[in-house]
Amino acid sequence: MARRFYVALVHHPVRGRDGGIITTSVTNLDVHDIARAARTYGAEHYFVITPIEAQRALVEHILGYWCEGDGARRVPERSEALSRVVPIESVEAAIAAARGEGPEPIVVTTAARSGFPVTGYAEARARLAAEPERPALLLFGTGYGLADELIARAEIHLAPIRGGGDYNHLAVRSAVAIILDRLFALEGDR
Ligand code: SAM
């Protein structure tokens, strides 16, 4: 059975510069680029999670242009990726949407920072493969990263991507692409 999985970009609850919990703003680039990566690797939906109604409306406005407006006519492959984007109000709502009428999703969290028990990528692939009927929901952060409470209650918290040097400030769009490739690339391509 093909693995059903979802990508989510969390704008709340995330950490601010001082470690407090904040709500970040949606960015156009994150909507577009993560939608394209999610579509490439076969995600069912890409949830853009924000409790702010006006921000969800902004995402709907972007989707309207690219899925139904001039954008859809000019660049249909963009519309194909963006048609899987779902603005949604909370992580709980995204979990419920991923669950649907089926089994509980496996929530997978990501972070650049250390300090949590982590699961390596080979083990994460094996754990996902062991329960193919359960969808996976991958949570990515904005601001200064996912709130600790999300990481603490995830079933799998992935090891940080490391580059070899001491600089570790990937854009979330880069982190999504790397992690999707590590988890969902065709086996022969790994
Ligand atoms: N405004 C920032 C940007 O440039 O995109 C957002 C930074 S946000 C903290 C980056 C998110 O990407 C993290 O919450 C995490 O989901 C993911 N990420 C970044 N670096 C990572 C790494 N080294 N390992 C795993 N995930 C990483």
Characterise the protein shown here.
The chain is α/β, with parallel strands linked by helices. 42% of the residues lie in helices and 15% in strands. It is built from eight helices and eight strands. The protein has helices at residues 28-41, 53-67, 70-74, 76-82, 91-99, 121-130, 148-153, 172-184, and strands spanning 5-10, 14-15, 21-22, 46-49, 85-88, 106-109, 136-140, 156-157. It has a six-stranded parallel sheet with strand order 5-4-1-7-6-8, sandwiched between helices. It has a two-stranded antiparallel ribbon with strand order 2-3. Helix 1 (28-41) crosses helix 4 (76-82) and helix 1 (28-41) runs parallel beside helix 8. S-adenosylmethionine binds at residues 110-112, 140-142, 144-146, 160-161, 168, 170-172, 175.
List the helices and strands and how they pair.
Elements (H helix, E strand, L loop, with lengths): L4 E6 L3 E2 L5 E2 L5 H14 L4 E4 L3 H15 L2 H5 L1 H7 L2 E4 L2 H9 L6 E4 L11 H10 L5 E5 L7 H6 L2 E2 L14 H13 L6
Parallel strand pairs: 1-4, 1-7, 4-5, 6-7, 6-8
Antiparallel strand pairs: 2-3
The protein binds S-adenosylmethionine.
